[in-house]
Amino acid sequence: MTDFRHLEVRPTPQTFVARVRGVDLSRPLEAAVSAELLAAWARHPVLVFPGQRLDPAALQAFCGVLGPFGHDPYVEPMPGFEHVIEVRREADETAPIFGSLWHSDWSFQATPPSATLLYGAQVPPLGGDTVFADGYAAYESLSPVMQELLAGLRGVHSAAPSYGPRGLFARDDESRSMRIIVSPEAENTETHPIVRRHPVSGRRSLFVNHVYTIGVEGMRADESRALLEFLFKHMTRPEFVHRHRWHADTLVIWDNRCVVHYADGGYEGHPRLMYRSTVAGERPAA
Ligand code: SIN
Question: pLDDT tens digits, the chain, 286 residues: what are they?
């Protein structure tokens, strides 16, 4: 049982993920319902809404309930929907899966998105899960000595390994159906606190990820590699991980400030199509 009046919010055993029923996200929400939804999201950084019928227009409209739109670089938006991208993979596609390593969306931006919304439009009969890890639990389980060592450190984030001229997507073959943009701009870097305080919950989480965090400010390359390798491994320990199995007509919202995720494969021979929008975030603060 939960204390919500308008929504049925059922946490999964790990509690950072909850399933939400009792709301139709394709229609405008009453203020009390949106307030409850935001309260549920502050408590459970990954919310799963089964049984929703959303087209790109409805997804874009609902995204506005959570805040202003984020800026999605390096992927062309859907025609007619400036704030929606397709995460698409055809049955016979062989290019690497989009988002297939642990990351927090666009963490290389000065103000990375707070939320990502992902809607399962065409879900394969097996595989294609999205896997999440709880950055709060990972931080809170570190020893006080390690927490102190990390306080004040800043991670260096860059899109170069993915979208730079020598990045993963620059090597794509022509079989990719997603419209990805490779650019020298991806070589820019931003630094963010490695331990981030959430502006709503006030909790601290680890804010580094395999894909975009390329170093630790002020450390030698071998030092930062060792520290980041430890953190990446620690953050994705099985006890912090939840595997989301998709069913059609499900929307998932996650909080990039305290959760990392990746897209799993295992659906060769089947198409997969998701609609994705992001909500603007703030500059990460320690
Ligand atoms: C993403 O990383 O945004 C894509 C996740 C997915 O396709 O499951």
Answer: 468 999 999 999 989 999 999 999 999 999 999 999 999 999 999 999 999 999 999 999 999 989 999 999 999 999 999 999 999 999 999 888 999 999 999 999 999 999 999 999 999 999 999 999 999 999 999 999 999 999 999 999 999 999 999 999 998 766 789 989 999 999 999 999 999 999 999 999 999 999 999 999 999 999 999 999 999 999 999 999 999 999 999 999 999 999 999 999 999 999 999 999 999 999 999 9
Is the C-beta atom of 250 inside 6 A of ligand 1? no
Q: Is the C-beta atom of 130 inside 6 A of ligand 1?
A: yes
CATH number for the domain spanning 94: value is 3.60.130.10
In a domain, 22, yes or no: yes
Task: Work out how many domains the chain is built from and give that number.
Answer: 1
What range defines the domain where residue 57 resides?
8-279
Specify if 162 maps to a domain: yes
Q: Establish whether residue 87 lines the binding site of ligand 1, counting it when its CB lies within 6 angstroms of any ligand atom.
A: yes
81 inside domain = yes
Question: How many A from CA of 152 to the centre of ligand 1?
Answer: 30
Give me Rg for the CA atoms of the chain: 18
Closest-CA residue, ligand 1 atom 1, reads 99
**Ligand 1 atom 7 nearest Cα:** 263
Say how many Å lie between the CA of residue 84 and the centre of ligand 1: 13
For residue 261, which atom of ligand 1 is closest to its CA?
2
Active-site residue numbers?
103, 105, 261, 276
**Domain contains 39:** yes
123 ligand 1 Cβ < 6 A = no
Nearest residue by C-alpha to atom 6 in ligand 1: 263
